[in-house]
Amino acid sequence: MDFSSAQRLDDGVVERPFTLGEIPGFLWTPPPSRTGPAPLILAGHPGDLNRMYPRLLARARHAAAVGFATATIELPGAGVRPRSAVAEQARADLRRAVTAGEPVSDEVVDRLVLPLVEAAVPEWRAALDALLAVPGIGGPVGYSGGVISIGVRLAAVEPRIAAAVLFAGSYVPASIVEEARRVTIPLLVLLQWDDESNDRQMALDLFDALGPAEKTLHANMGGHTGVPAHEGDAANRFFSRHLMTGGAR
Fold first, then answer.
1. Residue 71: partners with Cβ closer than 8 Å, 6 or more residues away
2. Cβ-based neighbour number of residue 54 at 10 Å
3. Does residue 96 belong to any structural domain of this protein?
4. Range of the domain at 84
5. What's the rounded Cα separation, in Å, for the pair 125 and 196?
6. CATH of the domain at 125
7. Separation of alpha carbons 68 and 167, rounded Å
8. pLDDT-based confidence at residue 247 (cuts at 50, 70, 90)
9. Is 158 inside any structural domain?
10. Is the whole model's pTM more than 0.85, yes or no?
């Protein structure tokens, strides 16, 4: 992991862009604390770091206010990374179906999402290896965001992730719904009820399939980008309970 620079923001948060091989990313750390290493949150997102940067930064600063470090990486096929012709065609097929008001077939969802999950999850785990070696960063680790299928796979296979906030905002393959039954860590799922790019029933079916005894669904009115600001506070409280000893209850 190569850090290119470090910038201290006006609230004391330190922003460090990095590359992990060909993968760009960011690490945001809170002001130094006497209580030890900062627990780490992996911030998931739809892919393009340049486009998502303002929202990712806002999420990271909000988490840093209660002592969390946040890291993110660019997804395969997004931003500056090489495009996948298969994924681009699947995305076009999905948009065509949604625009026409037609059902999105399982075959299209599988073509779009499953290769992304297979490629992205090992990259997230490699990034986690490198991030936990950075001074001042420690476990346990949380995952927060989307793509929800990536979050489900990580929650199922990565033992260092102790809790997750999953954003229900993308189509989910049937095989990922089956994997969800193996997830056992505490979960908070955020669902925008009127999300124009999400199948609401698919999200509800996935929530029903998720395996942990502690899982909570927050459903809010509004479209894909209309998540209420108070859900950031809810996420901080959730992660404080599960990632910090003696955290907020």
1. 25, 26, 27, 28, 40, 41, 42, 43, 127, 131
2. 9
3. no
4. 2-88+116-243
5. 31
6. 3.40.50.1820
7. 19
8. very low
9. yes
10. yes
Mean pLDDT of 80-93: 92
Residue 141, token pair as written in the block: 């680790």
Residue 141 located in a structural domain: yes
pLDDT at 49: 93
Q: Contact at 8 Å (CB) between 145 and 231?
A: no
Q: What angle do CA 127, 130, 132 make, to 5 degrees?
A: 105
Give the C-alpha separation, 75 to 57, whole Å. 17
Q: Is residue 111 part of a domain?
A: no
Length of the chain: 249
- 194 Cβ contact list (under 8 Å, min separation 6): 221, 222, 223, 226
**Of the candidates 29, 150, 165, which has an alpha carbon nearest to the alpha carbon of residue 78?**
150
Distance, in Å, from the CA atom of 32 to the CA atom of 13, rounded to the nearest integer, reads 9
Cβ contact 161:141 at 8 Å: yes
Exposure string for 77-89, b = 16+ CB within 10 A, e = fewer: bbeebeebeebee
Q: Which residues are within 8 A (CB) of 33 and not within 5 positions of it... i.e. 6 or more apart?
A: 67
Residue 34 pLDDT: 59
- Nearest residue to 177 via CA among 146, 210, 200: 210
Residue 112 and residue 94 in contact, taking contact as beta carbons nearer than 8 Å: yes
Query: Is 166:152 a contact under the CB 8 Å cutoff?
Result: yes
- Residues 135, 37: Cα–Cα separation, whole Å: 8
